[in-house]
Write a structure and sequence with these properties.
The complex is a heterodimer of chains A (301) and B (251).
Chain A lengths: L4 E10 L2 E11 L4 E5 L6 H9 L6 E6 L2 E2 L4 H6 L1 E4 L11 H11 L6 H10 L15 H13 L5 E5 L7 H16 L3 E5 L3 H7 L2 E6 L2 E7 H8 L2 E7 L7 H4 L4 E3 L2 E6 L3 H13 L3 E7 L3 H9 L4
Parallel strand pairs in A: 3-8, 3-9, 6-7, 7-8
Antiparallel strand pairs in A: 1-2, 1-4, 4-5, 9-10, 11-13, 11-14, 12-13
Chain B lengths: L1 H16 L1 H23 L11 H32 L3 H4 L5 H27 L10 H25 L3 H17 L12 H7 L3 H14 L6 H25 L6
Helix pairs in contact in B: 1-5, 2-3, 2-5, 3-5, 3-6, 3-7, 3-9, 5-6, 5-10, 6-9, 6-10, 9-10
The chains are: A alpha/beta (301), B mainly alpha (251).
Chain lengths: 301, 251
């Protein structure tokens, strides 16, 4: 089976800035893939190169096996992009914008699919409203709708939830999840790491135009994060000597332990009970992508 | 093909939705030129035998409207799309650079025709025009509109700000159109300026267009057609090249 997206040794320089420093990436069909990185890491440049908005200096990019330059028409037909910038055409209503966008992709009589998209993005009541009169969050949803009018098998969402309120964000994600279940490949960039963690099966992290981490979300969390146990001892109590060596951080009478497995909790609590020092508070936190992200970004790449 | 037709439809709908500004206003402006110049010069100037100055002026003003509005359509659409960022909507779909060019230029011709036709309709109240060779009228209106539409594409792609586009319009397009024989025959100019006028391609568009009405012109319509067609080919080739390499559109 062809890769949904194949990126080979892609470099791009803007003046003295090396935006992409030899990116290699393969994304399989049906994946929900996260592309993470700090501002300026090259995420949007990579997406722009995939969409044909930026021409790479070297390397190749392909969508569903179609080269984005030599076979650009097929590649673009198979790709839907939600741009990061909140852009709209002030001359048209929501429905007109979607009908026009359908026409650009060679699709006529797209009314039933347009109605379905509008329904799923909670835009039905705004269908005949001019784009200028929509709120920022609604404009963002129209951008999502515009990327979907031609039912592309590969959908790239570049920070789609920036400025969208919680309720609408959840609605958007349930719709995108459904598209993914239906077989669409989803590529997502976001600064909301908890979104990436809950949605993406695999994640690539970019820094200075290069991929610095690439693995399944589960593996990244296992390798670079873990459960943490936090204990706060009663005033005057001292931590048993046997646990001293296992303390990750210490602040007053508060101690944290990085856990390799959940079973370690029992060992630590057993030692605490044995020493009869009083416990004031206890908290266990799960692995999180934010910790992974910080570790990867600070790891000297 | 559908992508091209949709882009053409969108470009026509865009100007039609603000028709008061894009059609009615230029018709009124041209009408004011006609009223003022004909009032001042009707009794003092006769360019061709048997043709009143007002009659002489009408085809020039109509063609000037066609040209200026054709330029305005593609250039303003592109600069607005670039500045607001919605140009991305036409860059993401599988529309070829040739289709992109054809859609913007054809929409420019349509706007030029709508304004020019509106101007003709209004002026028919004032003057009786003869229609000696209608095919020349159509040929020069189409080619003139296409040339200015292509120039508008170039200016719209090149300009990064509205003032750069305004400079292009005010320092290149306006002088070329005003000094092209819209208001006078170049034979009324001193020899030096007559020679200079021959280097202005818009002079040939106006002169050939006017020939279609009166059957007389400053230079032969075939020569005008040759110059205008050559301009069209050169500008089309250049614009297509800019679009093919993605100049200022695809980084």
């Amino acid at each position: 089976m062809k890769n949904a997206i194949r990126i080979e040794s892609v470099t791009k320089r803007f003046g003295s800035v090396l935006a992409l420093a030899g990116v290699d990436l393969e994304i399989d069909q049906g994946e929900f893939f996260g592309l993470l990185g700090p501002n300026g890491a090259g995420k949007t440049t990579l997406i722009s190169a995939l969409a044909g908005l930026v021409r790479p200096d070297t390397g190749r990019l392909a969508v569903m096996g179609h080269d984005v330059i030599s076979d650009y028409r097929a590649a673009r037909q198979l790709l839907g992009v939600v741009p990061q910038e909140l852009v709209f055409d002030p001359f048209f209503t929501v429905r007109e914008s979607l009908e026009i966008q359908s026409g650009y992709f060679g699709i006529r009589n797209n009314a039933s699919w347009i109605d379905e998209i509008l329904e799923n993005l909670d835009l039905t009541s705004k269908a005949e409203t001019n784009m200028r009169q929509l709120s920022g969050g609604m404009k963002r949803r129209v951008l999502v709708a515009q990327a979907l009018v031609h039912r592309p098998p590969v959908i790239v969402l570049d920070e789609p939830t920036a400025g969208v309120d919680v309720e609408l964000r959840q609605g958007l994600w349930s719709f995108v999840r459904r598209l993914n279940r239906d077989g669409h490949t989803i590529v997502l960039t976001t600064h909301y790491l908890e979104e990436a963690e809950s949605l993406c099966g695999r994640i690539a992290m970019l820094k200075h135009g290069g991929v610095v981490a690439l693995d399944t979300t589960a593996n990244l969390l296992r390798r670079l994060s873990g459960h943490t146990l936090r204990l706060r001892l009663a005033k005057g109590a001292t931590l048993p000597d046997a646990l001293r060596a296992r303390v990750a951080t210490e602040s007053g009478n508060e101690f944290t332990f990085a856990l390799g497995s959940c079973e370690e909790i029992e060992d630590i609590l057993h030692a605490v009970r044995g020493s009869e020092c009083g416990l004031e508070d206890i908290d266990v936190s799960k692995p999180d992508l934010e910790e992974v992200f910080v570790r990867v970004m600070n790891s000297g790449y | 093909m559908d992508g091209f037709l949709t882009l053409l439809y969108k470009e026509v709908l865009r100007f039609w939705k603000v028709g008061f500004q894009t059609v009615a206003a230029p018709v009124l402006t041209s009408l004011l030129y006609l009223l003022i110049f004909s009032h001042v010069l009707e009794k003092h100037v006769q360019v061709y035998d048997g043709v009143s100055y007002t009659s002489f002026l009408v085809p020039g003003l109509v063609m000037m409207s066609v040209l200026q509005n054709a330029f305005a359509n593609s250039s303003s659409s592109l600069i607005q799309s670039k500045v607001t960022g919605n140009i991305i909507f036409v860059l993401l779909p599988p529309i070829s650079y040739r289709q992109f060019f054809a859609a913007y230029v054809l929409a420019s011709i349509v706007r030029g025709f709508v304004v020019g036709f509106g101007m003709l309709l209004v002026t028919l109240w004032f003057v009786d025009l003869s229609w000696q060779a209608p095919h020349w009228i159509v040929v020069f209106a189409v080619l003139g509109g296409a040339i200015m539409g292509a120039l508008g594409v170039i200016a719209g792609i090149w300009a990064e700000k509205f003032d750069q586009l305004a400079a292009f319009q005010n320092f290149i397009i306006m002088p070329l159109t005003f000094l092209s024989g819209v208001f006078y025959s170049i034979h009324s100019l001193p020899p030096f300026w007559q020679q200079v006028s021959h280097f202005n391609p818009i002079f040939y568009m106006i002169d050939g267009f006017r020939y279609g009405f009166f059957g007389v012109s400053d230079v032969s319509p075939l020569m005008s057609l040759g110059v205008v067609a050559a301009c069209f080919i050169v500008l089309t080739t250049f614009t297509l090249w800019l679009l093919r390499i993605g100049y200022k559109l695809r980084a």
